[in-house]
Structure formats: structure tokens, C-alpha cells
Design goal:
The chain is an alpha+beta fold. It folds into two domains: 38 residues; 49 residues, Roll (SH3 type barrels), CATH 2.30.30. It is 42% helix and 27% strand. The protein contains two helices and five strands; from the N terminus they run H-H-E-E-E-E-E. A five-stranded antiparallel sheet has the order 4-3-2-1-5, with no helix packed on it. Strand 3 and strand 4 form a beta hairpin. The longest helix has 35 residues. The protein is rod-shaped, with a radius of gyration of 32 Å.
Length: 113
């Protein structure tokens, strides 16, 4: 009985309780944008990066590569983190594996050779 009286007094004094904004409704657009961003940009980039790392790790002498600096060469030797490239007759250079941009393969012929 006392509870009922207090409830009726509270409703008369303050009216209906104030509605709170829904947190899930406010965050839903941000979550959707992140999911779309992840599916369209991040996931394909990760696949491409993993494939490139795998190809670079499997380099062997005789493979033709193009470095990220645009240098064409033939792999002469492979070490843990370095690759020895032959870029011209009697001209060998050492580069890091991360500097390999494109792997052309051993059988591809490049223009002008």
C-alpha cells in the first residue's frame, strides 16, 4: 500500500521516466562500417601479403625478380635475409628479401634480353 502511494506520487511529480538512448543503436553504424572496411580492404590485403611472403621465402637461384626500386635481376644466391642478384654481366648486388617486388620466374623472358 505504501509502495503504491509512493509510485503514484512519483508518476505525478516527474511524469514518465526519461528514455535513455540505446547504446547498441548508436554504435551499430560504426560497427557496420568497420566490418565492411575489414572485408573489402584489410582481408584481401592480408591474403596478398601472405602469398608474397611465401613466394619470396621460396626463391631459388635462377628466378627472375624485379625489386621495389625497379631493378631487374636474376637470383644467384639466397641467404636467410639476403638475396644476391645478378643485374648485369659481372655485376651482382645483395638486397634484402623484403625489397623483392615482383617474382617473374625462371622461364619468363624479359624484353631486351
Amino acid at each position: 500500500m505504501i509502495f503504491g502511494a509512493l509510485t503514484s506520487l512519483a508518476l505525478q511529480a516527474g511524469g514518465a521516466p526519461a528514455a535513455r538512448p540505446n547504446m547498441l543503436g548508436a554504435l551499430l553504424p560504426f560497427v557496420l562500417v568497420f566490418v565492411i572496411f575489414y572485408l573489402l580492404i584489410i582481408m584481401p590485403q592480408r591474403k596478398k601479403q601472405k602469398k608474397h611472403i611465401e613466394l619470396v621465402e621460396n626463391l631459388k637461384p635462377g628466378d627472375r625478380v624485379i625489386t621495389t626500386a625497379g631493378i631487374f635481376g636474376t637470383v644467384m644466391g639466397v641467404q636467410k635475409d639476403l638475396i644476391e642478384l645478378k643485374i648485369a654481366s659481372n655485376t651482382n648486388i645483395k638486397i634484402t628479401k623484403s625489397a623483392v617486388g615482383v617474382i617473374r620466374g625462371a622461364t619468363d623472358r624479359l624484353e631486351g634480353e
